[in-house]
Amino acid sequence: MTAKNVLEVFTRKGIDEKTAQKLVDAGYTFTKVARATDKVKRDIEKLLGEKKLKQLLEAVRMKERMPRKKKEKPLKKPQFKKTELPMKTPEMTPLEVKMSKMLEKDGKHLPRAVLNEISARLEGVDMPDKLLHKVLDLTIERFETHTVDPNESVGIIAAQSIGEPGTQMTMRTFHYAGVAEMNVTLGLPRLIEIVDARRVPSTPIMEIYLDKAAENDLEKVRQVASNIERTNLIDIADVETDINNMEVVVKLDRKKMERKSVSVEEVMKALNKAKGMKGLAEMRGDNIVLRCDEPSYKKLQRISEDTKYCPIKGVEGIQRAVIRRVSGHFVVYTEGSNLEKVLQIEHVDRKKTTTNSILEIYESLGVEAARNAIIHEANRTLEEQGLTVDIRHIMLVSDLMTSDGDVKAIGRHGISGRKSSVLARAAFEITSTHLLRAGITGEVDTLEGVVENIIVGQPVTVGTGAVNLVWAPSAKKSEGDVK
């Protein structure tokens, strides 16, 4: 500790600066004074005098004399508050309880979800115990055939399970369910979009749900829809080019403006902010006039085109909004998608609103939301074609696509291109490039996967190939054992 710091400590304790300076010059620290022996005290008394020594010791020991807080005695008995855990699953029905007891008696087990499904199907059916026992035995037999064996190639099975129904899918674009005015890509093209992790889907669509304050109020819903839908100037006005006076005349349609909830001030502000037209717009009666600042017909034509398609209102990327009533509430469907901006609009329910653009969900809500979106979109695409694929296969694909914390495509730019095995990457696409790059960088292939072992002619390390037999030679028999 420096002399300056020691001096500060003494002065903070109420010792005058002159006395503190004398102590510091003599080489005394606060700790040394606080733990002073009789010899040290006599030395300080010679330095300062008897009166000053008493004041110094009083200041140093002040802290020790401060009354200590009384510690509260612990309670004799610990007190616990009873907390009720939220019920995640409904209580078991009498039939489920009965089946659970039957299985417990036989030493067998079935998941709660399976028992719930059996109970739902047998609701209202008077079934004797013997027949119910038989149903449970058949269910267990079927259930066990669906379990995965050790070292089974789950990836190949998932690929087959999704790929085979994919051959029966259509290649067309259909009308969106419940919204005839909007088209949506379904079938195989949509499934390819999902697994390729396309940034922009071919037909981006949003389902915008509203909060309780607006979901049944048509006026509020229309207001939200008009705030979302992109409105260009051509939608609310006629744009004419006056070649003689070198100007563009905008004739506003008040009825259309009222329908779109757009004011003249908003139009003027948008025109004066637009690139290449800043400060050119001015009001002349009921019309807006944009004068060309130089005698160029080419520039006048450009100003005319820019004026027509100048965005006045709405969210970027959303061309159209359609209102529909679903399950007693109003829902806004949009042609185009911009999840981040839409979630910021008033009266939009942020928990329910969704988009079919998986990359937008990832950027706005994170990788877990993107994983769920991949599962939901792929499952819905297959179900719309009347195809049933176990959701676990789709979950495996989505887990693989999002395992690194971002959304990767299944292809050479994604999962297949990022494999650790050189031979596996080379077997997929652009063979020579992968082999050359691996040779330059000195990569080593440990031959742990299926493809690389097939290439070099070794048994694959899955299924029965993953099991090694070890022979333990028996100990040598002693001479006494030999007959």
CATH topology of the domain at 231-313: Gyrase A, domain 2
Label the structural class.
alpha+beta
| Integer-rounded radius of gyration | 40 Å
Shape: extended
Number of DSSP helices?
A: 22
Biggest β-sheet description: 4 strands, antiparallel
Please tell me the overall pLDDT.
Answer: 80
**The CATH C-level class name of the domain at 231-313:** Alpha Beta
**What ranges have pLDDT less than 50 throughout 5 or more consecutive residues?**
none
Number of strands: 12
CATH architecture of the domain at 231-313: 2-Layer Sandwich
Strand content: 5-15%
Distance between the termini: 90 Å
Q: Helicity, in percent? A: 40-55%
Strand order of the largest sheet: 10-11-3-12
Secondary structure topology:
Layout: H1 3-12, H2 17-25, H3 30-34, H4 38-48, H5 50-60, H6 62-65, H7 94-106, H8 112-121, H9 129-145, H10 154-166, E1 173-176, E2 179-185, H11 187-195, E3 205-209, H12 218-228, E4 231-232, E5 237-242, E6 247-252, H13 254-259, H14 264-273, E7 281-284, E8 287-291, H15 297-308, E9 311-313, E10 318-326, E11 329-336, H16 339-342, E12 354-355, H17 358-365, H18 367-384, H19 391-402, H20 422-428, H21 431-441, H22 450-456
Antiparallel strand pairs: 1-2, 3-11, 3-12, 4-9, 5-6, 6-8, 7-8, 10-11
Helix pairs in contact: 1-2, 4-5, 7-8, 10-19, 11-18, 17-18, 18-19, 20-21, 20-22
